[in-house]
Amino acid sequence: MNYEDILSFVQSQPVCTLATCSMSEENTPHVRGFLTNIIDQKIYFTTSANKNVGKQIVKNKHAELCYLSHDFSKMLRISTTLEILNDKKIKQHLIDTREYLKGFSADDEEFFLLGLSNSSATFWSLADNLKEEDLEVITF
């Protein structure tokens, strides 16, 4: 498995769950659904500094993503550090192509573009149950 396999899997099911952990709430985990954006072979997310998830990411950039195949036969987990990026070109592209972002401006500093760094990923299936320590880890 390699990074291209990760991108292919994510493209085929772009909705994931994203888990954050707020350090100010006694490390209380929070999970929510997110739509993935792939641009130039990189994974991105968007959110707002005004949302709880944005505030949690500012305080603790460590997160985990989980993608599940439509037939529930395969899972992809990515442990990562979320980076708040200020790439106005990508922000504008997303605003232009995602209806739910129409109210945002690429110049708005409260409109967060999130990228992944220091990431590790594993694919899992039911055949791997109770063998998690044996799973291949892909770093990117």
Quick recap:
By secondary structure, this protein is of the alpha+beta class.
| Rg | 15 Å
**General shape:** globular
**Structural class estimated from helices and strands:** alpha+beta
Count of DSSP strands = 8
User: In what range is the share of β-strand residues?
Assistant: 35-45%
Helices, by number, come to 3
Quote the CATH topology.
Pnp Oxidase, Chain A
Task: Write up what this structure looks like.
Helices cover 20% and strands 44% of the residues. It contains 3 helices and 8 strands, in the order αββββαββαββ. Strands 1, 2, 3, 4, 5, 6, 7 and 8 form an 8-stranded antiparallel beta sheet that branches. The two termini are 12 Å apart. The model has no long low-confidence stretch (mean pLDDT 95).
Helices, strands, pairings?
Elements: H1 3-12, E1 15-22, E2 28-35, E3 37-39, E4 42-48, H2 52-59, E5 62-68, E6 74-85, H3 88-97, E7 111-125, E8 138-139
Antiparallel strand pairs: 1-2, 1-5, 3-4, 4-7, 5-6, 6-7, 7-8
Q: What distinguishing features does this structure have?
A:
140 residues; alpha+beta; Pnp Oxidase, Chain A; eight-stranded antiparallel β-sheet; 20% helix; 44% strand; globular
